[in-house]
Design goal:
alpha+beta
Length: about 425
């Protein structure tokens, strides 16, 4: 680090001798605006330089994950500089985007917010239990147009050759930028670990390139300072792949590396990140065929959808797999043979002659998308009781499945009868 930073090494050490690391959140614009979130939080938000919707969390703020607005997916707690890579990816509405190493989901849900319900997000994680955490965050943030998979990068990218406009590889790394907040990252560090990470990162990039269309953009990022895992990996990848070029990402945060890549140190306002934007300049790979639309479904399913949601907010590409009802994005490739945890929205489950809705559907719905809803203030006793799993009293005129909202943001649902809302908030998400 002294060789890398030169005269700035002493300033770097001051940060590492401090107990106060950078903390941040990103507003989820699928559910909430920055102005609205500001009005609902009891602390000030200062914007970071890395993302339009990224803000610093003041050092004195504690237990922000218990805030009802966090449960509702109004924001994602994310280290400030971690938002830089998606900013450099420059996602546009309608893009097809692959996040290849996606867990726990911070960058995927940032991509989803930029897509704003259009195009396709494919979020992949090779480690199964981490993929489940990824899916939970995709649900919480109300993402409608995502596929979540648990595939090896080679298998996925070879199957989806040339399909994506943009690919993000936030590669597993030695995590030097996490040392201040994660002591385990320090104890796991070694020169051998850095070298093995660099070899694996290059292998992942050489898988990722296959999924990208000609003219598409690939952003590579890590949360480490190691030159071997950053400049070294990019240099070697470009040597092996003359059909790619390193390009200017048009940002000015952090500092320059390799002419166009960006490095972020604690002195730049974040714990640490590296990102490089690459463009694929030639290719002859055919694009995979899109999967066929689902067949017509039983009337009970159509009736349930119409009775509980207004105007088919998730589209009408319904499909029953087993007893579960899914609504897939309109345009996705064939997924047969791939380990897919979820595609689109899990609307509900057929149980005998009725349909039981799923938490996922209400989290992806706005209050106006729901046939019935109740709304509580973020500081109300009712919302505390709901998140705890208790029944709550509501308007006696309401009957049936009902969205529960906090200041106009859906946080779950219950079933109302005789003025009582029977709680359907998932047990694993409830507060103690």
């Amino acid at each position: 680090m002294k060789s890398l930073l030169g005269d700035e090494f002493d300033e770097f050490l001051k940060f590492y001798n401090s107990d106060e690391n950078f903390r941040g959140l990103r507003v989820n614009t699928l559910k909430c605006s920055a102005d609205k979130l500001r009005s609902l939080l009891d602390f000030d938000l200062e914007q970071t330089p890395f993302c339009r919707d990224g803000f610093y969390i003041p050092h004195g703020v504690k237990s922000i994950g218990n805030n009802p607005l966090h449960h509702a997916g109004a924001f994602y707690v994310q280290e400030p500089s971690a938002t830089s890579a998606v900013t450099m990816l420059d996602v546009q509405k309608g893009d097809r985007v692959l996040d290849l190493c996606a867990a726990p989901g911070g960058k995927s849900t940032q991509i989803a917010a930029a897509l704003d319900g259009e195009g396709l997000l494919w979020s992949n994680e090779i480690v199964r239990n981490r993929a489940i955490i990824l899916l939970s965050n995709i649900e919480r943030m109300g993402v409608r147009n995502a596929v979540v998979s648990n595939c090896h990068p080679d298998a996925l990218c070879n199957r989806l050759r040339g399909y994506f406009d943009k690919v993000l590889v936030d590669a597993p790394c030695s995590g030097e930028g996490m040392f201040r907040k994660n002591s385990a990252a320090q104890t796991e560090w070694s020169v051998e670990h850095v070298k093995s990470c660099a070899a694996r990162q290059l292998e992942i990039l050489n898988s990722a390139k296959n999924a990208l269309k000609c003219g598409g953009v690939l952003v590579y990022s890590t949360c480490t300072f190691s030159e071997e895992e950053n400049e070294g990996v990019i240099t070697e990848f470009l040597r092996q792949n003359p059909d790619f070029t390193l390009e200017d990402s048009g940002v000015n945060f952090g500092r320059t590396a390799l002419t166009h890549a960006r490095r972020i140190f604690p002195m730049d306002g974040g714990e640490g990140h590296f990102a490089a934007r690459l463009r694929k300049i030639s290719d002859t790979v055919p694009v995979p065929e899109e999967r066929k639309r689902a067949e017509k479904n039983p009337q009970i399913v159509a009736d349930f959808y119409a009775d509980n949601f207004v105007g088919k907010p998730f589209g009408d590409n319904l499909e029953i797999i087993g007893d579960k009802i899914y609504i897939s994005p309109e345009h996705i490739p064939s997924i047969s043979g791939l380990s897919v945890l979820r595609k689109g929205i899990l609307l509900g489950e057929i149980k005998k002659n009725r349909v039981e809705p799923h938490h996922c559907a209400f989290m992806a719905a706005k209050p106006e998308d729901c046939a019935r809803s109740v709304d509580f203030d973020v500081n109300s006793e009712e919302i505390k009781k709901f998140l705890h799993g208790d029944e709550i009293k509501v308007n006696g005129d309401i009957k049936g499945y009902t969205a529960v909202c906090v200041n106009g943001i859906t946080v779950g649902f219950g079933k109302v009868s005789n003025g009582n809302l029977k709680n359907k908030y998932p047990k694993g998400l409830r507060t103690l």
